[in-house]
Structure formats: structure tokens, C-alpha cells
Automatic annotation (TrEMBL):
The active site is at 493 (nucleophile), 565 (proton donor). Residues 666-748 form the Glycosyl hydrolase family 36 C-terminal domain. It comes from Granulicella aggregans. This is Alpha-galactosidase. It catalyses: Hydrolysis of terminal, non-reducing alpha-D-galactose residues in alpha-D-galactosides, including galactose oligosaccharides, galactomannans and galactolipids. GO terms for molecular function: alpha-galactosidase activity. Its EC number is 3.2.1.22. Residues 1-30 form the signal peptide. Gene3D superfamilies: Aldolase class I (3.20.20.70), alpha-galactosidase from lactobacil brevis (2.70.98.60), Golgi alpha-mannosidase II (2.60.40.1180). Belongs to the glycosyl hydrolase. It holds the Pfam family Glyco_hydro_36N.
Length: 752
């Protein structure tokens, strides 16, 4: 035996040991979450809270195998096998739960992709070709059985929350142009069952975020926007719970804290559609992406279309936990300042006080009063530009109105800074009034169809942001405003929806006009991204007549949203409740205003503050009408808010008592991530028959820690201890001392 060989043999165990140690001593965060078993052809995504599995069957089709609570690594999963046909009317390919279904063959289920080729062929059947795992990203390449159309299915996983992002990229490698008529991001398949319930959010202007929960029956429920933007009518979010009649705990229906929940949301701010379908064998498919209504995307040889990301997650602890998972995911993975977004400042907004009648003296007077109560950001709303007297004129002309601000914006901005606040400004960049210099100069810049009426919404038309010249105009004016002025915040508004969405510049024969649905939104996103890169300190709010543009796409580029123009404090309770099912309180701006509720008179200043303190606190009242008492209450509550805002905005939210469905009471609790602080908000609509406010049981505290309770506003029943364990507050509960109409109280629990 040579010396060298001897040495190798001798060294091998030590070398292997070191290598093994290097491979297996990786920190938890660097562990692999995506696996492929090359023997069974099964992919698994494993996170602490969930397992998602799918595989390639003998026909090279990709089908879902499991989505639910975590399985052990060695647990057997069924080998992927196409379902057996039920009859000639229900052949296998129509009932197999495909991960991404093309329209072709015997498929009558909602397809994710549908294509027309120039020769008239419209059949597409996708088969697995290859895959690549790159950390927390998996790309599976599929291809049509005969034509060179490739579809990449992309999966990303956020291990801490288990939220999986999916989208597709469709590439034309044939040598002729084809047209994509339908392009969804993904299909999510749930286990068989007949006891599923769908939760979704719908509404209208000033009544957004209404939660509907209904059984899923055979057939399809369509959630969608055909309006060019996200919309107030449906939000691109869903949650599916089980009634649990056939589950392990039939006595407990799924609720805030109990039961399985599958949930998801689309990251897209244009027309979208989510189909929730229960098929002939009681499988549930959720397919979402671009809305196929009026959709056609021609793809030249070599070109690709990528679809928006459809995120989804799973909770085995009720819909409350589903929301908390999604809130954490948005704060740490989606928002532009991820993973630790800055806390929202306390703002003042001029809209409800002055509407478009803004000028230096009026705004300066409001700013002085706002500063006195502890406001940190002063925002001047609509009315400062062009010939803007009312909503008939001015949009598009982004120069300062000289009658209102003879010396420009600088004096007001300086005044606001001198008062120790930063300055925010309202803009509505995508719109133009026909009565504007911009429209007179460029009537061709709006969405329109040649020779057809140009329907106005709020007396305005939509600029076609898909056009290069329009994109350049919009970026340049915003860039100039931000370069010329010391501005910390833009309120980006959007107050109408699309009509006559033509793009005649492309020519009457162009088959590309319908790509406006995609290209417009891409340009919107690219303007926001470029502005943020060039002005990194500027924060942006997405507003669309209230909550018309709230989705995970826009939230990747904006710091907060305006949930609704309805600032009536009682209505706001259910609006905020619905909002938090899908989106994080970190982005939920909430103003205290003078909007009266249904009862005679205005609820107290404290009531109105406590409602708004559950999100990013703002004030929108006309401060010129406030009494000394109002100022004193506001000052105290704003100071208190600053001690709890991190918990409210970034902690774990528990919806303890729902304000929905005519409830007389409601309560929310937020717990800080380190479990050191909890904040309880309680609201009473009306005391009836002298019944006391229901006892409130806190959640999410550390049972072993001692928590000291102090009132933020209001009192607890006299015999309440000042300090007790987390266990006590959660099991014994507390009794807020609330009687009467429109009463509110809030309490802070702090660990000793
Ligand atoms: C609609 C917004 O939702 C309001 O807050 C306000 O900014 C107006 N537009 C201004 O026109």
C-alpha cells in the first residue's frame, strides 16, 4: 500500500466528519424548506406551521397531494397518480387536482392558462420537463406536449410564516406569434370535503371591507375586479375554513382561534379574478390571476408573460391566527421597509376640514393646532395645484396654484417643519380633468376608443399610463415636486375606474390594445419603484376614494393605505375589523374626524380616538371647531398612543368581540411580539336591558408573567386587581365598566 493511499484512508473519516458537521450544523434559518424526492417524484414544502406537497405523475402531469398541518419528514405521501375516470362524462383529466391547468384535452375545470395559436389551434396540455431548487425558490418548467410553449411554475416560501408565493411565466418559443387569452398565477387545491366555508371581503365606496362568510357549494364563486384596478367591490383576498362537521372536533366550528384555515391574496393592482370552485367530486380549487374578461396578450416568438404572485398560507388555529400570520408576512416580507417597517407617525390631514379650499393662512392655522396635540406629520390634501377650485378642473396640471399659495409651497412646508412636523402632499397622478392645460395639450393621452364617448367619473378621465410619454410625464412631475420641496410623504389618490380602455395610439389593427391591463399596472409599479429609489426618505400612501387600491402588489411599494372615506367612528369599527382579516394594522390609517354617527350628536372625542388608535392614528377634524376639552383629550390620547403604537401596528392582533352583525359590543387586543405589552380596546354601542358589558378574556399573553394594568381611557370594575398573571387575565378575564351609548375604554397591560 503506498504511503499516499494510506494517508487517504486514514484521513477519510475525519474529512467526512467535518463535511457532515458543516452540512448539518446550519442555523435553523438556513435550513432547506423545499425538497424533491427523485424516487417518488414528490415535491414537499415544509415550514414549522405547514406542509405543502405535490408531485409528477406517470403522465408527467403535476398534481397536488397535500396541504395542511406539518407532516413528519418520513411520513408516506401517496405516489402521484392521475385520478380514475368516473365515467365518460368525468374523465380523469377533469378531476385530477392539477397544480396549474391548461385549457386542452378533456378539461372543463377553470383553466389557469388558455392560448390561441395563429393556425387556429387552441389546445394546450402542459407536462413536466425539469425543475430547479434555489434556496427558498422552486422553478418547475413545463411544456406543451407538441408545441414549444413553456410555462414555468414558480414557488417561493417564507419559512417563518409558511406563506407560499406562486406565479407562472409563459414563454413562446415557437416561431410565430400566439395570443394568451387567460393567464392565472396559480391554482390552490384543498383536500376533499363538503364542509368548507368561504370568507371574502366586498363593499363599495364608503362601505369597504364587509366580511361575508358562506358555505362553499357545488359550482363557482367568482371574486373579481373588471375595473382596471383592485376595486372596493371585492378585495383579492380569500380564506377558506371548515365547518368541522367531519373533522376531528365537530363540536367546534372553525372560528377566530380554532380550526383549519387556508387563505391567500393576489399581489396585483389591476383587473383580477379569483375563482373558488367546488367540482363534481367535491374538490375545492382556488384559481387566481389576471382577469380573463376583455384580456388578450399577444406573445411574439421569444417573448414571455409573467403573472402576478398569488400568496397563500395555512393556519391550524382559526382565522385569527390566519390573519396574524398574514400580518407578520406583510410586515416582514412585503412592505417596502421590510423586515422592520418604521412606525406610522401620528398625522393630520386637511381633507375633511378644508376640502379643496386650501391656502397658506388656513393650512398654517391648522398646522399650529395639530402641532399642539402631538401630531408628527401634516398632510395637505386636494386643492393646492392648477386651477383646482372643485373637482371639475385642475387634475393633470401639477403646478402650485398662485392664488392659494402666492410664494409656492415653501412657506407652508417651512412653517410645518418649524412646528416639528414633517410635511405630506396629496397627488392624483393618473388622472386628468378635461378642463386642464394637460388635456387641452394632449387629448390623446387618455384611455379611449376612437370615435366613442369618453365617460367621465368624478369629472375626470384616466391617463393611459401604459404609454411611454405618459409614464415619463407622470414620473417627471412627481420627481420634480419631490426634488424641489422637502416632502416626507405622498398621499397617492385614484378616484375613478376605467372605461373605454382603448389604446388607439397602437393603431386600429393592433392586437396589442388589451395589453393595457398589464402594461398600465407595470408602469404604475415602475414609477413607484423609481421614485422610491430616487427619494428613499419619502413614504407613500395608496388611496383610491378610500380603500379601492389595497392589495399585496401596491403594498410592496407603499407604506400605508387609506381603508375608507367613511370616517364615522361606529361604521369604522366594522370597516377596520374586516380590513384586518386580510391586511396588517401597520398600514391601516385611521383618522379622528367630526363625522357623526347614526345616534344624535357626535360620539365623544375619546370614543373617536380609541377607534382610530387601533391603526395608524390620524386626525382629520376641523381643529378650528374644537373646544379646549377636545384639545386636552386629544393631547393625552396621542401621548398614550405613542406608548402603544408599536404593539398596535406590529404586534399580534386578537379580534376578541366582533362589531359585525349588529353586535352591541366589540373588543380588540394587540400583544407586542415580545409579549411584554398588551393593549385592550373595548366599545359599547348601546346598553340594553341594563346588561353589563360582557367579560373580556385576553389572549396571547405569557401565562407565567405578571402584568400590571393601567387605563388609557375609562375604568375596569372596582374589584379588578392592578397586577396579575397572564393566566389570570386570559382565564378570569376583565370587566370594562361601560354603560350607555357609544362608550369606549382602553387599557394597557405591561409585564413587570
Ligand atoms: C378621495 C380620498 O379618499 C379623500 O381622502 C380625499 O383625498 C379626496 N379624494 C380628495 O379629492
Amino acid at each position: 500500500m503506498s504511503k499516499l493511499k494510506l494517508m487517504t484512508t486514514y484521513l477519510r473519516p475525519a474529512y467526512l466528519l467535518a463535511l457532515t458537521a458543516a452540512l448539518f450544523s446550519v442555523p435553523a434559518s438556513a435550513q432547506e424548506h423545499i425538497h424533491f424526492d427523485s424516487t417518488t417524484h414528490v415535491f414537499r414544502i415544509d415550514t414549522p406551521g405547514e406542509t405543502y406537497a405535490f408531485g409528477v405523475n406517470a403522465q408527467s402531469e403535476i398534481q397536488t397531494l397535500y396541504w395542511g398541518s406539518p407532516l413528519a419528514a418520513a411520513d408516506p405521501l401517496p405516489t402521484p397518480a392521475a385520478y380514475r375516470s368516473l365515467s365518460g362524462m368525468e374523465e380523469s383529466s377533469n378531476i385530477t387536482p392539477y397544480e396549474y391547468r391548461a385549457w386542452g384535452g378533456l378539461n372543463f375545470t377553470e383553466p389557469a392558462v388558455k392560448i390561441t395559436f395563429p393556425d387556429g389551434n387552441r389546445d394546450l396540455v402542459l407536462h413536466y420537463v425539469s425543475h430547479k431548487i434555489d434556496g427558498d425558490k422552486l422553478t418547475i418548467t413545463t411544456k406543451d406536449i407538441s408545441r414549444d410553449v413553456f410555462v414555468d411554475l414558480i414557488y417561493t416560501v417564507a419559512p417563518a410564516t409558511g406563506v407560499i408565493g406562486r406565479n407562472s411565466v409563459i414563454t413562446n418559443k415557437t416561431n410565430a406569434k400566439l395570443t394568451i387569452e387567460q393567464a392565472a398565477s396559480a391554482t390552490w387545491n384543498l383536500p376533499h370535503g363538503t364542509d368548507y366555508q368561504l370568507s371574502y371581503l366586498s363593499g363599495r365606496w364608503a362601505a369597504e371591507w364587509q366580511l361575508t362568510q358562506e358555505p362553499i357549494k357545488d359550482g363557482t364563486t367568482v371574486l373579481e375586479s373588471r375595473r382596471g384596478s383592485t376595486g372596493q367591490q371585492n378585495n383579492p383576498w380569500f380564506a377558506i375554513t371548515r365547518a368541522n362537521t367531519s373533522g376531528p372536533h365537530p363540536e367546534f366550528p372553525t372560528n377566530e382561534e380554532v380550526g383549519q384555515v387556508w387563505f391567500g391574496a393576489l399581489a396585483w393592482s389591476g383587473s383580477w379574478r379569483i375563482n373558488v370552485e367546488r367540482n363534481q367530486v367535491h374538490d375545492i380549487h382556488v384559481t387566481g390571476g389576471y382577469n380573463p374578461f376583455d384580456f388578450a396578450y399577444p406573445l411574439a416568438p421569444g417573448a414571455s408573460l409573467s403573472t402576478p404572485v398569488f400568496y397563500a398560507g395555512y393556519s391550524s388555529h382559526g382565522i385569527g391566527e390566519a390573519s396574524r400570520i398574514f400580518h407578520r408576512f406583510q410586515n416582514t416580507q412585503i412592505l417596502p421597509q421590510k423586515p422592520t417597517p418604521k412606525l406610522r407617525p401620528v398625522i393630520y390631514n386637511s381633507w375633511e376640514a378644508t376640502e379643496m379650499a386650501v391656502d397658506y393662512p388656513g393650512q398654517a392655522a391648522l398646522a399650529e393646532k395639530a402641532a399642539r396635540i402631538g401630531v408628527e406629520r401634516f398632510i395637505m390634501d386636494d386643492g393646492w395645484f392648477g386651477q383646482r377650485k372643485d373637482d371639475h378642473a385642475g387634475l393633470g396640471d401639477w403646478y402650485v396654484n398662485k392664488q392659494k399659495f402666492p410664494d409656492g409651497l415653501k412657506p407652508l412646508i417651512d412653517k410645518v417643519h418649524a412646528l416639528n412636523m414633517d410635511f405630506g402632499l396629496w397627488v392624483e397622478p393618473e388622472m386628468v380633468n378635461p378642463n386642464s392645460d394637460l388635456y387641452r395639450a394632449h387629448p390623446d393621452w387618455v384611455l379611449n376608443m376612437t370615435g366613442r364617448p369618453r365617460s367621465e367619473g368624478r369629472n375626470q378621465l384616466m391617463l393611459n399610463l401604459a404609454r411611454k410619454d405618459v409614464r415619463a410625464y407622470v414620473f417627471n412631475f412627481l420627481d420634480k415636486i419631490l426634488t424641489d420641496n422637502d416632502i416626507a410623504f405622498l398621499k397617492w389618490d385614484y378616484n375613478r375606474q376605467w372605461s373605454e380602455p382603448g389604446w388607439p395610439e397602437l393603431g386600429p389593427d393592433s392586437d396589442k390594445q388589451k395589453t393595457v391591463y398589464v402594461e398600465y399596472i407595470r408602469n404604475l409599479y415602475s414609477i413607484l419603484a423609481e421614485l422610491r429609489a430616487k427619494h428613499p426618505k419619502v413614504e407613500i400612501q395608496s388611496c383610491s376614494s378610500g380603500g379601492g387600491r389595497v392589495d399585496l402588489g401596491i403594498l410592496g411599494l407603499t407604506d400605508e393605505v387609506w381603508p375608507s372615506d367613511n370616517t364615522n367612528p361606529f361604521d369604522r369599527l366594522s370597516i377596520q375589523d374586516g380590513f384586518t382579516y386580510a391586511y396588517t394594522p401597520q398600514v391601516m390609517t385611521a383618522w379622528v374626524t367630526d363625522s357623526a354617527t347614526h345616534a344624535p350628536g357626535l360620539p365623544s372625542t375619546a370614543y373617536r380616538f380609541l377607534v382610530s388608535m387601533q391603526g395608524g392614528l390620524g386626525v382629520g377634524s376641523n381643529l378650528n371647531h374644537w373646544t379646549d376639552d377636545d384639545f386636552a383629550t386629544a393631547k393625552d390620547l396621542i401621548a398614550a398612543y405613542k406608548t402603544i403604537r408599536q404593539t398596535v401596528q406590529q404586534g399580534s392582533l386578537y379580534r376578541l368581540i366582533s362589531p359585525r352583525d349588529g353586535s352591541e359590543h366589540s373588543a380588540t387586543e394587540s400583544v407586542s411580539t415580545d409579549l411584554h405589552q398588551a393593549v385592550l380596546f373595548t366599545f359599547l354601542h348601546t346598553t340594553s336591558l341594563n346588561y353589563p358589558f360582557p367579560r373580556v378574556y385576553l389572549k396571547g399573553l405569557d401565562p407565567a408573567k405578571q402584568y400590571h394594568v393601567t387605563p388609557i381611557y375609562g375604568t375596569l370594575k372596582k374589584d379588578t386587581p392592578e397586577t396579575a398573571s397572564g393566566s389570570y387575565w386570559m382565564n378570569h378575564g376583565v370587566d370594562p365598566d361601560l354603560t350607555g351609548d357609544f362608550k369606549a375604554a382602553a387599557f394597557k397591560f405591561e409585564a413587570e
